[in-house]
């Protein structure tokens, strides 16, 4: 069937270009532009191959709070930063061939936090609000072995794969912690947050003493690893009152553990350390670049005492992990998208989304599609909206220029980007013409007054490329993601299909499908002739 279609002039790239003649303006009403664009997309879809290889590597990107409206607004911003109208732009992960929707509710909430959703994504099991790595059937202080849930980290390490975490939030924060920790309360990041009644170990302790097989750890959160008898490494970092009260220096403990193992290791705390790290000369690396969360990309210190970008950390992590012939699993979190949204600072959230997009682009460039499954998703959305009928090319960070029918009744304009709740509320609505709405710290208007904006409960997108990525389609439960990643990489359960599967080339393994397809093509050609 496809061979016959190729003779149609409408799918011939040369014919179409000859028909168009001169270039058509980006903002155009000429129907030829839209026709040609759609035909090109159709050709791409018809030529798409199903990759049923075994995934040697899996890279999971989680944009924390990166709902569909955030993706759309970031796409427009990306185009406008390149002096285009913006709407026609495309993010790197939007080029991926397979897309699905993920339902983000958890066992006890319609709208969840990051702990329970990340646990679902990484373990394949839904749990309760604020739970990390434990199921929802146990008590509020239960960290027992019976309550613990294994994740794709455990499954991958069992099969001899290397593992790593990259985040620009605290390394003990909800999303990264869900890969390795087991606590019923996400706030138990260090011993200072533990109730006296619990027998649970804090998240930072679990990372160093129970998960020291993780080879790459990049993020923030040094304060959770230092004792209250020591000042922070970095001038202006956290004060000692925020440090551990048990006297443990978990950074030193980590170095001792790896040293006894005979591994080559490095601890990093700034750009100088990071830039001098040779990925071919280290087995384990712990990079804690801030006492708290890492800096927003718009504010990031790029100097010697500053910190690397999400893209730079992702690149170095892949370079280290890909030395393992068995492959690797890497989690990369754009954690500060979420933080900016909570503050109703849309510009920062969108720039953080673009920073994640750059990291995804680098991951695509450093890996081979036939052997690496890359999944991009969000844990949840935010009550963040694009509103008001703005004209094509209107500044996404600017003020809406609506038709008269839709002009506000109080005769004050409003910004395209708005929040349903958050700190941007006021009794008398501010006129955005009196401020710079493109300022890095501009707080968008919100409808309901809250000190912090909340998460949103709508579905979020899943984007995928590489082995078994075609399994992401339709509307899925969020915990389905872990099952596909495990199935594709032949870790955890469901390994019976792995016999005879390689990661060397594209192929369609369903022989019945191939024979049936050949029969249909033969029948079609026979009837035509």
TrEMBL record:
Q: Which GO terms describe its molecular function?
A: alkaline phosphatase activity; metal ion binding
Active site as annotated: 114 (phosphoserine intermediate)
If you read the UniProt record, what top EC class would you report for this enzyme, in one word?
A: hydrolase
Entry cofactors: Zn(2+); Mg(2+); Ca(2+)
Biological process according to GO: biomineral tissue development
The UniProt entry lists membrane topology as: Lipid-anchor; GPI-anchor
Q: Which residues bind Zn(2+)?
A: 64, 338, 342, 379-380, 455
Q: Which GO terms describe its cellular component?
A: plasma membrane; side of membrane
**Entry's localization field:** Cell membrane; Extracellular vesicle membrane
- The positions annotated for binding Mg(2+) are 64, 173, 175, 333
User: Per the annotation, how and in what number is the cofactor bound?
Assistant: Binds 2 Zn(2+) ions. Binds 1 Mg(2+) ion.
Task: Give the family per the record.
Answer: Belongs to the alkaline phosphatase family.
Protein name as it appears in the record: Alkaline phosphatase
Which species is the source of this protein? Answer: Pinctada imbricata
């Amino acid at each position: 069937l496809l061979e016959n279609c190729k003779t149609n002039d409408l799918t011939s790239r040369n014919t179409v270009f000859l028909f168009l003649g001169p270039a058509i303006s980006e903002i155009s009403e000429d129907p030829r532009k839209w026709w040609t664009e759609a035909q090109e997309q159709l050709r791409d879809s018809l030529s798409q191959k199903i990759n049923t290889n075994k995934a040697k590597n899996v890279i999971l990107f989680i944009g924390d709070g990166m709902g569909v409206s955030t993706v759309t607004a970031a796409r427009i911003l990306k185009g406008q930063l390149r002096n285009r109208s913006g709407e026609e732009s495309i993010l790197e992960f939007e080029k991926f061939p397979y897309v699905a929707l993920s339902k983000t509710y958890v066992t006890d909430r319609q709208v969840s936090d990051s702990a329970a959703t990340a646990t679902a994504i990484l373990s394949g099991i839904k749990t309760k609000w604020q739970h990390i790595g434990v199921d929802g059937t146990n008590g509020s202080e239960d960290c027992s072995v019976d309550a613990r849930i294994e994740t794709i980290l455990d499954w991958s390490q069992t099969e001899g794969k290397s593992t790593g975490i990259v985040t620009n939030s605290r390394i003990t924060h909800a999303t990264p912690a869900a890969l390795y920790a087991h606590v019923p309360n996400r706030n138990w990041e260090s011993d200072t947050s533990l109730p006296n009644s619990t027998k649970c170990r804090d998240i930072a302790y679990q990372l160093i003493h129970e998960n020291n097989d993780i080879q790459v750890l990049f993020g923030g959160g040094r304060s959770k690893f230092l004792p209250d008898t020591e000042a922070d490494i970095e001038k202006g970092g956290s004060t000692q009152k925020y440090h551990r009260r048990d006297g443990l220096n978990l950074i030193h403990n980590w170095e001792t553990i790896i040293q006894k193992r005979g591994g080559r290791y490095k601890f990093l705390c700034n750009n100088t350390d990071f830039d001098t790290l040779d990925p071919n000369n280290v087995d384990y690396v712990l990079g804690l670049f801030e006492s708290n969360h890492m800096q927003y990309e718009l504010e990031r210190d790029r100097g010697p005492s500053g910190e690397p970008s999400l893209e730079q950390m992702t690149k170095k992590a892949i370079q280290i992990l890909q030395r393992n012939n068995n492959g690797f699993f890497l989690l990369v979190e754009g954690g500060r998208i979420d933080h900016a949204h909570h503050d109703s600072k849309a510009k920062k959230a969108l720039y953080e989304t673009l920073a994640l997009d750059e990291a995804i682009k680098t991951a695509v460039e450093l890996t081979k599609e036939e052997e690496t499954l890359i999944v991009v998703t969000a844990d949840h959305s935010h009550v963040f909206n694009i509103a008001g009928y703005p004209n094509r090319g209107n500044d996404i960070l600017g003020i809406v220029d609506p038709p008269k029918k839709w002009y506000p009744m109080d005769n004050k304009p409003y910004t395209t980007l708005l929040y349903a709740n958050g700190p941007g509320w006021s009794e008398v609505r501010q006129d955005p013409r009196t401020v710079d709405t493109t300022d890095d710290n501009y707080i968008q208007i919100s409808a309901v007054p809250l000190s912090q904006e909340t998460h949103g409960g709508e579905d979020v997108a899943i984007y995928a490329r590489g082995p078994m990525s075609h399994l992401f389609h339709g509307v899925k439960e969020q915990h389905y993601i872990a099952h596909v990643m495990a199935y594709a990489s032949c870790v955890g359960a469901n390994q019976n299909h792995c016999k005879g599967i390689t990661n060397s080339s594209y192929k369609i393994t369903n022989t019945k499908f191939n024979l049936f397809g050949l029969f249909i093509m033969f029948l079609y050609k026979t009837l035509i002739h």
